[in-house]
Design goal:
By secondary structure, the chain is an alpha+beta fold. It folds into two domains: about 190 residues, Phosphoenolpyruvate Carboxykinase, domain 1 (3-Layer(aba) Sandwich), CATH 3.40.449; about 270 residues, Phosphoenolpyruvate Carboxykinase, domain 3, CATH 3.90.228.20. The chain has 16 helices and 33 strands. The strands form eight sheets. Strands 1, 6, 7, 8, 9, 10, 11, 12 and 13 form a nine-stranded mixed β-sheet that branches. Strands 14, 15, 16, 17, 18, 19, 27, 28 and 31 form a nine-stranded mixed β-sheet that branches. The structure holds sulfoacetic acid and manganese (II) ion. Manganese (II) ion binds next to loops.
């Protein structure tokens, strides 16, 4: 008798009509074989992978994508639930039957002459009760190799699945990379994603945003847990005590820098558990525990340097795990990957991300694509936490929500309690970045940094957050941060990066109840001089500005929040409506 997995594979073969089928085992020999095939394989006259300078970047390969396929495409991303209301105003919706019909048309025969890769993978460790079994199908060797970095692949998954039909199915074909024939369709009620026409990370590595956030957030809603767009870190103080934090920031707003932070303050150390996704469960002791279901970083290259993120640079130069991929960066004359901000010196002889010679004096564009990325194993990271593989995850004491705001939101603010924290997270706004196609720098509401990733109606998601709070003992403290406030000349007022640790230190003091706070209209602010500024050249005047809660700005902000809440008709939880009403009263708005 065929197992359910074999039936699935057979159906896929019939649909895609590939030349060959290859079932991945996740071994190092396999990775070497696939890299060697990818080096010989040409797409549009260009090898899929090119070896980079092994002296500087061991085991590293370069990939150039189709220039029309460099970021997530939210307008082509759909959540296909039986009713439009279940998907909510936060998602594009399509009727599931219609969506499948559309995708089947694209899929039919699309792997003719190609190899179909079958990737059995697991999100979470094999030992964890929180882990989930998955299978992805793809015809892109680049996607297959990326999945090896980002997830745990192996025959153990097949054994775990056995005859059960309870596994995630991710069906991907890169097709002809035509934006008119590009769709990413989610079917949360069927544990299924269909993706066509793109090879880009969030569109094609289906274990990432598609499964671990959109589908998993829905599973979490049904099963009583949370799938979140969050980094996970452990902060060790000189006594050896480790305090675990979650950090939610929208794409390209510094989650990876946060995850690999090197504290400026002596005696502290940050341990890395994850930089993008956290699955959060209520543990047996009634506290919140988080696991990182992934095994790699898919990080933004531009701006990464020994100055801004030394630990990531060391991770990229580490050769423990095979291979590391660089996508759409530029290349320098020594065959090293290159991007804006990698060093202070400008190198001549740069080849840009589209393969053209680059002249910084004449070319009015960056050499590396602003959303160029590295895909690197978390096992290369020198600050990887001992708890990374812990099947239960780490106990969370603080949750940080941050956006990219030039004004309005102070450097840090603590929510009075869980409910007010959920409210503050639900009204988060952030300037758009290069991580998605579309314009850059507009403010959009991005509650919990999950707006593009919540696989169901976000009003219900807010209620789910409130309900989780009712079930836990000692809920973690919730903080809102903004590293990106600017002065009237457009200059960042806070240095950011390593200095952000000063704010985290304040949070630890608050969690341990060592210090007090200053009440404000929007929550609890640090008392004067409570943030350790030793060794930092910043004036009191700027510090005051960083914490300024400006009435006019907030009146504007509240208008935007109301507009956003209105989209959900009457579904916004009463608790949050009450918080908004209170906020309006505090600012004297009727
Ligand atoms: O493209 S990904 O979704 O994988 C990265 C991001 O936008 O956060
Ligand atoms: Mn992300």
């Amino acid at each position: 008798m065929l197992t359910t997995m074999n039936v699935f594979i057979k159906n896929m073969q019939e649909l895609f009509q590939p030349n060959k089928t290859y079932i991945m085992d996740g071994s190092i020999e396999e990775a070497k074989k696939l890299v060697s095939i990818a080096q010989k394989m040409k797409i549009n006259g260009e090898p899929v992978l090119k070896k980079l300078n092994a002296m500087e970047y061991p085991n590293s390969y370069y990939h150039r994508s189709n220039p029309n396929d460099v970021a997530r495409t939210e307008h082509l991303t759909f959540v296909c639930t039986s009713s439009k209301e279940e998907a909510g105003p936060n998602n594009n919706w399509m009727d599931p039957d219609e969506a499948k019909k559309k995708m089947m048309n694209f899929f039919k025969g699309s792997m003719k002459g190609k190899t179909m890769y079958v990737i059995p993978f697991i999100m979470g460790t094999f030992e964890s009760k929180y882990a989930k079994n998955c299978i992805q199908i793809t015809d892109s060797i680049y996607v297959a190799l990326s999945m090896r970095i980002m997830t745990r692949i192996g025959s153990q998954v097949t054994t775990r699945i056995g005859n059960s039909s309870d596994f995630f199915k991710g069906i991907h074909s890169i097709g002809d990379v035509n934006p008119d024939r590009r769709f990413i369709m989610h079917f949360p009620q069927e544990n299924l994603v269909m993706s066509f026409g793109s090879g880009y990370g969030g569109n094609a590595l289906l274990g990432k945003k598609c499964y671990s956030l959109r589908i998993a957030s829905y599973l979490g809603y049904k099963e009583g847990w949370l799938a979140e767009h969050m980094a996970i870190i452990g902060v060790q103080s000189s006594s050896g005590k480790i305090t675990y934090f979650l950090g939610a920031f929208p794409s390209a707003c510094g989650k990876t820098n946060f995850a690999l932070l090197e504290p400026v303050l002596k005696g502290y150390k940050v341990w890395t558990i994850g930089d993008d996704i956290a699955w959060i469960n209520i543990g047996d002791d009634g506290r919140l525990y988080a696991i990182n279901p992934e095994t790699g970083f898919f990080g933004v290259a531009p701006g990464t340097s020994f100055k801004t993120n030394p630990i990531m640079m060391r991770t990229l130069k580490n050769n423990k795990f095979y291979p590391t991929l660089f996508t759409n960066t530029a290349i320098d004359s020594n065959n090293n990957p290159w991007w804006e901000g990698i060093s202070e010196k400008f190198q001549s002889d740069i080849i840009d991300w589209q393969g053209k010679k680059y002249n910084k004096d004449f070319d009015n564009r960056p050499a590396a694509h602003p959303n160029s990325r590295f895909t690197v194993s978390i096992h290369n990271c020198p600050t990887l936490s001992e708890m990374f593989n812990d099947p239960n995850g780490v106990p969370i004491s603080g949750i940080i929500f941050g956006g990219r705001r030039r004004d309005t939101v102070p450097l840090v603010c603590e929510a009075k309690d869980w409910k007010n924290g959920v409210f503050s997270a639900s009204i988060m706004g952030s300037e758009t970045t290069a991580a998605t196609s579309g314009s850059i720098g507009n403010i959009r509401r991005d509650p919990m940094a999950m707006f593009p990733f919540c696989g169901y109606n976000m009003a219900e998601y807010f209620q789910h957050w409130i309900d989780i709070g009712k079930k836990i003992k000692n809920p973690p403290k919730i903080f809102i941060v903004n590293w990106f406030r600017k002065d009237k000349y457009g200059k960042f007022m806070w240095p950011g990066f390593r200095d952000n640790f000063r704010v985290i230190k304040w949070m630890i003091d608050r969690i341990e109840n060592k210090i007090g706070f200053k009440e404000s209209e929007i929550g609890l602010l640090p008392q004067n001089n409570a943030i350790e500024l030793d060794g930092l050249n910043i004036s009191q005047r700027i510090m005051t500005k960083l914490f300024n809660v400006n009435k006019e700005e907030w009146v504007q902000e509240i208008k935007m929040i109301e507009e956003f809440y209105t989209k959900f008709e009457n579904k916004i939880p009463q608790d949050l409506k009450n918080c908004l009403a209170e906020l309006k009263i505090k600012f004297g708005i009727e």
